[in-house]
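Need tokens for this chain, all 276 residues.
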Amino acid sequence: MFYIGPHLSVAKGYLNMGKEALKIDANTFQFFSRNPRGGRARKFDPEDFNALENLMKEHNFHPPLVHAPYTINPASEVEKTRNFALLAMKEDLERLNLMEGFMYNFHPGSHVGIGVERAIENIVSALDEVMVVNLNIPILLETMAGKGTEIGRNFEEIAQIIEKAKFNETIGVCLDTCHVFEAGYDIVNDLDEMINEFDRLIGIDRLKAIHLNDSKNELGAAKDRHEKIGKGSLGLEAIKRIINHPKLKDIPFYLETPNELKGYGEEIKLLRGMRE
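Here are the structure tokens for all 276 residues:
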């Protein structure tokens, strides 16, 4: 099954996101757990959510991916910053425990001067605090482009976090095609090499989601600038290889391209036509 969907806003409710996805022939979607720049999560409405669940079952949706806000930084040692990250993640995961099959994705954070090793220790400590034995929510570390002092710019850093975390059975990875390309992985000319390195360092079984984006910048730029599908440095041929690769094709794909709903619909139609 080719699962592909857009990034939507939860502001108008859960069921509305499902309806919007159906309008553009999507069978999954992603949304922020709260305002991407921070703030409180939207009040949970069980009836609205149950209506979404029924719609997803009826149309064979893959469970959505819930994205943590950009502002959390579990790598930080600044008390206020760290406390917000822990609070937001705990609240999000408590809510997700009510949502069967949903996955939770977050940016590992930035070391802002304390160094990679110490930052990884902080991320692991945060995961150990927010994850509990009875938590069955897959928590995904997103691969990053390497902008500034970002952690997760290479597979080695992601692997270290997973290896050191106490409850790592449900920790997975969300691979962002724009990010890995700008981090220096040449997925245009040697996709297999990237996949093999991921498998060797992390394990392909931990790859649970793919952010499918083109890139405004060249290989290794480390700037994190997403582009519409086929309009950037990856191009349509590389993206076609990604969505049809035997080791990737059954993983759900989530678009984070600079689009509104209509644009996402056009991209989904294009990608479905490229599927072999």
